[in-house]
Amino acid sequence: MFGYYLELALRSLKRNRVLTVLMVVAISVGIGASMTTMTVMYLLSGDPLPGRSSHLYYPQLDAETGKSMVRSHPADLLDYISARDLWSGHKATRQTMVAGAIVKLQPEQSSKRPMMIEALATTSDFFPMFDVPFKYGAGWRPEDEEARARVAVIDADLNRHLFGGANSVGQTIRIDGNDLRIVGVLDKWRPSPRFYSIAGGHAAADTSDFYKPPQGVMMPLPTALDAQSQFDWFNCWGDVDLKHMDAAKCEWVGLWVQLDSPAQRTAYREYLAHYDAEQRALGRFDHAPNIRMMSLMEWLDFSRVVPQDVQLQTWLAFGFLAICICNTVGLLLVKFLGRSGEIGIRRAMGASRRDIFMQCLVEAGTVGAVGGLGGLLLSWVGLWLVRQQKVAYADLATLDPGMLVLTLMLAIGASMAAGLLPAIRASRVPPALQIKVT
Amino acid sequence: MDILPILSTLRRHKITATLLILQVALTCAIVCNAVFLIAQRMERMHMTSGVAEQELVRVRLASIGGTSEEKYPRDSEDVALLRQIPGVTEVASVNEVPFGNESNNTGIKTDPNQKKSALNATTYYGTHIAETLGVQLAAGRNLRSDEYVDLNVVTSALSKGDDKALPKSIVITQAVADRLWPGQNPLGKPIYFDKTPLYVVGVLKDLVRPAIWNDAYAKYSLIMPVRVADGQYLIRTVPEDRDRVLKAAVEKLKAADPNRVILKKDTMEDIRARFFQDDRAMTGLLVGVCVALLVVTALGIVGLGSFWVAQRRRQIGVRRALGATRADILRYFQTENFLLATMGIGLGMVLAYGINLFLMVHYELPRMPGFYLPIGALALWTVGQVAVLGPAMRASEVPPVVATRAA
Questions:
Q1: Who's near A143: CB < 8 A, 6+ residues apart?
Q2: What is the pLDDT of residues B259-317, one digit of tens each?
Q3: Per-residue model confidence (pLDDT) at position A438
Q4: Could you report the per-residue pLDDT of A330-344, keeping only the tens digit for each?
Q5: Domains in chain B: how many in total?
Q6: Could you report the per-residue pLDDT of B335-369, keeping only the tens digit for each?
Q7: CA nearest A66 in B: which residue?
Q8: How confident is the model at residue A269 (pLDDT cuts 50, 70, 90)?
Q9: Sign of the torsion angle spanned by Cα atoms B185, B188, B190, B191
Q10: Which domain holds residue B87?
């Protein structure tokens, strides 16, 4: 029966070419627009570390002194003293400090020019904790931090730029005037967003920079402190010497901890509260406790990392799709009812209501399938357009296999839904009356 | 034109008519909000900067580090070098540039005992910065060279609580003056940074901040008599010399020390374009969506219209045979479309208001002014009339003889 319905559908669609093209174009454009924006939304709002994110927590406190008012939220980053104290307490399964910096890289080859690149000053747990993939070598060991060893891990892009992609473990790179020995080269790693260094999101107008790729160079935090690297800082108070950030009254270090069980989480919260109280007793903090510990996803949510323009575009696209569907329902309705005569004759010749209904639905589904294919093509074009934009997440916008299936399902589902009402109406066409009139 | 017969006909096509109304309503609601968003972005993109945008170029070197004893003399040498370039009228070594996206900001007070700062403003530093930027004075004077203090001296004086070494004067924008002392003469009034007062000596008509979180505070800028050596140079020249001067500046700085990294070399126009690039992209997208929506709706009306005409060929023939003119038939379909569009627009306005409320709550957008609603209405009426014209013309061409034929 399905084959027969399909044949009827195709014949009917051929009869009104303009109308068919109109419906297919409307569905394609609607699907294309909503799939493009939905793919971007999906890629930007997903979990950067599936399976692990629920074990990762972000302890925060407020170390700023001399304020007349306590902030409504703790600071987005910690001062170095608090971060180091909590980190060296080793109260979690794993813990790591992270701080961004801009460093000067001087390639040894004279043909390559010196350049300023983003670097990450961190600690050895960073790599196992965030499941960072290595192509060559591995991360540094905890001893290297204590020894303030001059070691570094570089990413695949920098390795390609400096060493042509070869195994560069054991080679040196010159960062801020210091020679660092490469101990590891990362494999392709592109978390979305760059979750471990996010600060200031909840107040930012544009959050697209949170989707930058990971920093090209990673080095032990103590080593970077020795090199007096130019760290990114978030907030400073009092007299600030940016060359000695370990003592500076600045918020610039993030602390991530891995806590595997609810008991561990409770214990860490208590530890944090205890540390805060202790520092107040020592006179280093001067206001009421303002502490918090969010999970990775809670922190991303709180920081509102998904850019508002992207959300707005998604709403817009779905509004668009709604109008396109409205359009298609209207067109299908007039089309089916325009064939009342034909339907009446079929009914008189013994076709049941169900037959007519199914026939109409197959026709609507065919329009949907073709529209879906068109929509797929358009979302491919749409994502290409997104990639041409100058935003940090541009390279992430690629067609996702899951999204591909979803597109087709959405298209067929949408046009079936659009075909439902017209099909019901058509199946109610009474047989006798139609014969009488025509 | 009598609309009652039209309404009674429409009552027999309830579902189709409802669908068309719904489509017009949705389109109207989205177009109203999209046009409002476009207008907002356009307004933002046309924000004035208060500086001579056509005459400025910027070179930014990577911070070279080193002690203050090394940095400041080197900075003076660089400025002297840049001044030698033919066509250069002013050079300033600055900490930040308008629309540059990187900024120093600080809370200021009008009374040292205030608990909360009165407003948050950006602080521009650098000798000759006002002259180089080409900002215009509304009152008072610009800062004099002898008022300037090195940034490192300021920092160490602050830590020692030594007020004597700190600068005494400050230049503010009219926006800051209006906010701090509405209706009063700001000249000579003190502004407190924590406990330290600086006295207003000049008021600028306009000077935009480097980074803008909230457009309402975009003009809260201060110029302080602080000398910096950050390796960021603003150079003023005539518009047609900008490219040449920029090239010459980079060459001069490289010649002075080939090891330095040039982070940025651009014109003020480039900086502005980069600052608003997201707004431009979004505006383009919204315009595209509006056009696409109106086209889809127009095609829908053409499709429905054609079918209705085909369905009613006999009635039209009968009406023609009974004496209706072609113009009557034409007007019938036009009126029908107008009625449907009007109902859609009515519903669309309510929807538009709802969408605006949603955007206000979730995206901190302002309330949409009422005059955007007629814009959407006008667009939909026009689209409806244009779209229905084809089918209506075909209807008017139905000959009266159709009535005599068996259907």
A1: A149
A2: 788 888 999 999 999 999 888 988 998 998 899 889 989 988 888 888 888 888 888 99
A3: 46
A4: 888 888 887 888 888
A5: 2
A6: 999 999 999 999 999 999 999 999 998 887 889 99
A7: B194
A8: very high
A9: positive
A10: 53-274
Cβ-defined contact of B308 to A334 (cutoff 8 Å): yes
Q: How far is B261 from chain A (nearest CA, A)?
A: 6
Q: How far apart are CA A27 and CA A328, in angstroms?
A: 8
- Chain B contact probe: residue of A18, A37, A334, A383 with most B CBs at under 10 A: A334
B173 and B288 inside one domain: no
B162 shares a domain with B118: yes
Tens of pLDDT, residue by residue over A148-167, are 999 999 999 999 999 999 99
Cα separation, A77 vs B348, in Å, equals 46
Hey, what are B70's tokens? Answer: 């090394």
Checking DSSP bridges between strand A151-154 and strand A178-186, what pairing results, if any? parallel
| Predicted ipTM of the assembly | 0.78
Record: contact B30-A320, CB cut-off 8 A: yes
Q: How big is chain B by its Cα radius of gyration, in Å?
A: 32
A253 DSSP assignment: B
Same domain, B287 and B252: no
Whether B98 and B123 share a structural domain: yes
CA distances from A370 to A160, A232, A376, B272, B389 (A): 43, 51, 10, 44, 30
CA A378 – CA A391 distance, rounded (Å):
21
User: Could you say which of B274, B289, B324 is where a domain stops?
Assistant: B274
- The answer to whether the CB atoms of B20 and A330 lie below 8 A apart is yes
Tell me which residue in B293, B299, B307 faces A334 most closely, judged by beta carbons: B307
Q: Do A322 and B407 touch (CB under 8 A)?
A: no
Cβ(B61)–Cβ(B265) below 8 Å: no
Pick from A411, A94, A60, A405: nearest CA to A251: A60
Is the same domain home to B103 and B217? yes
User: Across the interface, do B26 and A319 touch by the CB < 8 Å criterion?
Assistant: yes
